[in-house]
Design a protein that fits this description.
- The chain is α+β, with helices and mostly antiparallel strands and about 600 residues long.
- The protein has 14 helices and 19 strands.
- Strands 1, 2, 3, 4, 5, 7, 11, 14, 17 and 18 form a ten-stranded mixed sheet that branches. A nine-stranded antiparallel sheet has the order 6-8-9-10-19-16-15-12-13.
- It is elongated and about 105 Å long.
Length: about 600
Amino acid sequence: MMGDQKNLVLAIAVSLLIILGWEAFFAPAPPDSPAGQEMASDAPQAQRQAEPATGAPAPGQSAETPMQTPAAPGESAGAPPVLGAPATADPRSSAGVTVRESALTSVPRVSIATPSLSGSISLVGARVDDLVLREYGVSPDPGSPRIVLLSPPNSPGAYFARYGWTAAGNSARVPDERTRWTADGNALTASQPLTLSWDNGEGLAFHITFRIDDEYLFTVSQRVENASGEPVTLYPFGLVSRSGTPEVTQFFILHEGLIGVHDGVLEEIDYDDLQEEKVIRHENMRGWLGITDKYWLTALAPDPGQEVTARYTHGTGPNQTDRYQVDYLAQPQTPTQGRPAETTTYLFAGAKVVGVLDEYQERYGFTDFDKAVDFGWFYFLTKPIFYALRWLHGWLGNFGLGIIALTIAIKIVFFPLANKSYRAMAKMKNLQPEMLRIREEHGDDKMRMNQEMMALYKREGANPASGCLPILVQIPVFFALYKVLFVTIEMRHAPFYGWITDLSAPDPTSMFNLFGLLPFVPPEWLPPIGIWPVLMGLSMFLQQKINPQPPDPLQAKIFLMMPLIFTVLLASFPAGLVIYWTCNNVLSIAQQWVIMKRVGRT
């Protein structure tokens, strides 16, 4: 019975590949503690508690200066500069929120207020170092704290952006992180730009104008006026600095760390890889670069028309705190009297909303900006599935209903293949009595038994492997849908109905307390098997019952265990994916039952 054995091996191999593959590569590492688990996988480092950084830059060191041409003061050849070294933290408290609030009030600020963002710009250093995402909370609860994206240097998890100029050979006094700027207004809004100014007292006047839209894009225009009468060469730069290594989800399918597109090539750098490399540099590049979390991004986007020198760096600050920085240095300019030096660039700081990234990519020419969302190797399949779900959500008003509608659509698309496969399976089921007779007659002669089986398949036009085709076709769609549910912020905290308040999270119920009917919380060592995983397991069991059963009792027992294995395995997957798999099974059962009935078997 060679064909039947091959079918068994193929089915078990596919099942084991899925089980072992997901466990080995995709399953998250257990958190250190149950508390704050959502934030550990979801919120930026600035939202979490961390050890307060202390210490100040050494004399002659520029704490936030990118690479220079020539080398920056205090920067030894081949070594990265000190990255974002802050002033001494407030000693009164080590609680993240308290220290952050103290840091915010320690310097004068100008507020930022848009429909999507709130925060402020520091007038000391002209840093964008205080941003809160108004539309996103830490949990699905509408009253939960908002996500904090950026925080000032002397706060735990400092994370900020800064723009400025460096002078060739230190030929001119330029503003640094301690410079006190003056503002022409008291707020930056979508309808009101803000200009910061500083005069070096030697004939150079520096101006930075910030503009912001209704979403997450800052337009940063810099201008230097030279009234000194002396020539000076200046290099405009931009940087994003982050203190501490954030907790990441450690999922194989998700990149969190440093990211950029350089001359059309996507580059993803993990934190630990940069710790080893120290400096990664790109000369004469066009593109963008930044630091990404699962759902949030802070990115520098130089004008697409200019070439810059870009760099990713890692260093350590006081108490051996890891510090990461992305920065760029643009082409030099020489302002003269009556002819200022000017440059315009962009800063993205916010949620990785696919439609927003696509819009910026089209409007401003940011190459592959949508790839800040980790759609992965199957981009060509994952992004269309996302767009289909988003369209269905707009039509149906619920992403869960959109998943069900997508399941039906996929079934319709693959109906001819599935129809052919199920007809072949029906034939195999009809041949089971004859297959049992051959096994009984030639059980001691494996070669003769296999020959008789192959002759039977050929005579009846049956293919024992054809029943696996629907499963094999579904696997890429399954992975792509999982990717969409896991990486896109549109799915984050998206509710379905009843107890499912977040389709991107596992079903929160548990069979071990009868799905909430018993008044106790099951221990953590029990698998969190909710209602939808149970429904999925039952549908898989029913589907197996109407399939041709293996004649070998041992094989039948192995297949009987598969629904239980997949129930436990998928219980920790996003609820949206389990809903998809359950609906797919139900539709397959209906389709298979009709086809088998037509060929005379029920």
